[in-house]
Structure to design on (565 residues):
């Protein structure tokens, strides 16, 4: 983690060849006066730019340490983001199963068709219903005869035993099982309805599980964030110790604590942002690698399902989170140390 | 410009490094600080550089009372002072040019505007040709001169030097002293600790002598 001595190179000092002009030493040129007239904004911007250059230079001076740290940070950040994307994919996949999560509303026998129309219209009005479809007892019987393959054997049955029903397709986009329960009790209370049955209680269980998984991933993200904070903090703490002599000289020459701190903060920001980028590459590569296999499996189930990597919002969150954690970690590591180091 | 009133510095354990030292330096004055080693010359310079605080008495630089100066204001004070250390304390991972440029960058100057000043300072110490070298490749005397260039590049109102010519041959020492005198003529106030008796006598300036932490002599040669 100790940076090697820097190759001779300027800290933001340009190497533009300037002819030595001894009189400039005794007489401030017009450029110096112009500089003073400039506002604090330009001055601040200049200081930030030089500090960022200095910070990046420190990373370049210790390439192996930098690469190792970035890899560790990348892996730490890749875990929560990858898992988030995985849970997201599972949710998307299970949304395709909504079609099987339908409610069969069995009607009483011999309802007049006007009442049936009324009930169907009433059900359709509910916001949590995406569609409702009436099947008469005759239609049901015909479908059953065709699908069962028993054919003529069923002719023995004289009366059609099947009730008329309305197939209700709930809107599960919210993934909220409480809403479905509410819908179910509403349907059971409708006049003319004999009973209402949710065919797939297991979908509810799946949603509950996915919800749990999401919470677990959130918790993991918190831990990963803490890990990033500590890794950056410790790395920069070691780095600042190897810069002790330089910090003393800077302070003797009149540098403020902020001036000395700034390059270290930029190192932290670079670590956080770089770690985020590495994590992005890891996650994208993993999803690209596994995506093909998943599609193959899905194809065997006649499903067009495609895995999708983390979306732009997740990526942005990962990068900005990395940046903030890197900055915070380096601040925690160096602020007190720099204040404590005094020239001797 | 530099004012010491009844300055006393006692270290933990009771050792009194400075005892009731009193003198004033006017703006544009140059004084030598002499005395045997252990007399308290370095301690006095460290007090003037706000590296330590007095136990008793008052140190005032440019109207600022250092014993009352908050930590926040120390950087601004140090930007007014050019230091020349016994050990030049150069950054060995930077070039000579970058070492001399450092005080100007810390003061907030643009890198592209300081080239002529840095080179002029290097020129006056005779090291313009070495601007791209690492300090590690220079001799002790050359390193000392880079330190001097770094101290004068901002043309500070106050110059403090601890044995600035300790590693230099007599001819170079005289040139460095001439550089200091040039600065004085531009209004800098300087206090220079030196063992070099001949040089001090030759320059005919004020000499402040310390012995065992006490000011024993203060006169113009």
């Amino acid at each position: 983690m100790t940076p090697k001595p820097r190759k001779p190179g300027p800290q933001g000092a340009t190497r533009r060849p300037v002819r030595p002009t001894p009189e400039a030493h005794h007489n401030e040129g017009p450029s110096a006066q112009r500089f003073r007239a400039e506002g604090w904004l330009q001055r601040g911007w200049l200081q930030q730019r030089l500090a960022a250059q200095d910070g990046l230079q420190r990373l370049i001076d210790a390439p192996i340490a930098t690469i190792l740290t970035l890899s560790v940070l990348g892996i730490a950040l890749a875990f929560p983001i990858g898992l988030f994307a995985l849970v997201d994919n599972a949710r998307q996949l299970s949304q395709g199963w909504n079609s099987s999560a339908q409610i069969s509303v069995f009607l009483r026998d011999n309802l007049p068709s006007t009442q049936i129309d009324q009930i169907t219209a009433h059900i359709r009005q509910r916001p949590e219903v995406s569609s409702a479809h009436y099947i008469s007892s005759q239609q049901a019987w015909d479908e059953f005869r065709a699908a069962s393959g028993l054919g003529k054997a069923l002719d023995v049955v004289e009366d059609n035993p099947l009730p008329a029903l309305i197939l209700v397709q709930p809107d599960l986009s919210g993934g909220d099982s409480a809403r479905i329960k509410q819908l179910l009790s509403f349907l059971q209370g409708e006049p003319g309805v004999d009973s209402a049955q949710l065919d797939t209680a297991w979908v509810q269980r799946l949603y509950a599980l996915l919800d749990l998984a999401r919470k677990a991933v959130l918790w993991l993200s918190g831990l990963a964030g803490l890990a990033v904070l500590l890794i950056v903090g410790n790395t920069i703490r070691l780095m600042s110790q190897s810069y002790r002599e330089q910090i003393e000289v800077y302070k003797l020459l009149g540098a403020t604590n902020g001036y000395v701190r700034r390059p270290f903060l930029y190192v932290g920001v670079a670590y956080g942002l770089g770690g985020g980028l590495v994590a992005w590459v890891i996650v994208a590569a993993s999803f690209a690698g596994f995506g093909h296999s998943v599609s193959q499996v899905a194809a065997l189930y006649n499903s067009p399902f495609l895995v999708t990597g983390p979306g732009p919002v997740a990526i942005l969150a990962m990068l900005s989170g990395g940046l903030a954690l890197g900055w915070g970690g380096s601040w925690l590591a160096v602020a007190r140390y720099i204040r404590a180091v005094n020239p001797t | 410009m530099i004012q010491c009133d009844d300055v006393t510095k006692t270290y933990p354990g009771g050792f009194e490094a400075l005892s009731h030292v009193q003198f004033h330096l006017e703006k544009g004055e140059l004084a030598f600080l002499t005395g045997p080693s252990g007399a308290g010359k370095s301690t006095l310079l460290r007090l003037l550089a706000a590296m330590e605080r007095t136990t008793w008495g008052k140190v005032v630089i440019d109207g600022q009372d250092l014993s009352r100066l908050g930590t926040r204001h120390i950087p601004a004070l140090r930007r007014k002072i050019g230091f020349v250390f016994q050990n030049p304390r150069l950054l060995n991972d930077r070039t000579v040019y970058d070492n001399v440029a450092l005080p100007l960058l810390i003061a907030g100057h643009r890198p592209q505007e300081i080239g002529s000043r840095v080179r002029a300072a290097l020129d006056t110490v005779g090291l313009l040709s070495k601007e791209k070298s690492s300090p590690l490749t220079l001799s002790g005397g050359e390193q000392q001169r880079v330190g001097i260039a770094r101290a004068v590049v901002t043309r500070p109102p106050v110059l403090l030097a601890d044995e600035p010519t300790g590693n230099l041959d007599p001819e170079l020492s005289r040139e460095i002293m001439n550089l200091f005198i040039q600065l004085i003529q531009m209004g800098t106030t300087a206090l220079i600790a030196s063992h070099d008796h001949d040089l001090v006598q030759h320059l005919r300036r004020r000499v402040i002598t310390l012995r065992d932490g006490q000011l024993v002599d203060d006169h113009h040669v």
In short: The beta strands of chain B are 2-10, 16-25, 30-34, 56-61, 64-65, 81-84, 158-162, 189-193, 206-211, 214-220. Chain B touches chain A through 47 residues (CB under 8 Å). The helical segments of chain B are 41-48, 74-78, 96-106, 115-124, 140-152, 170-185, 197-203.
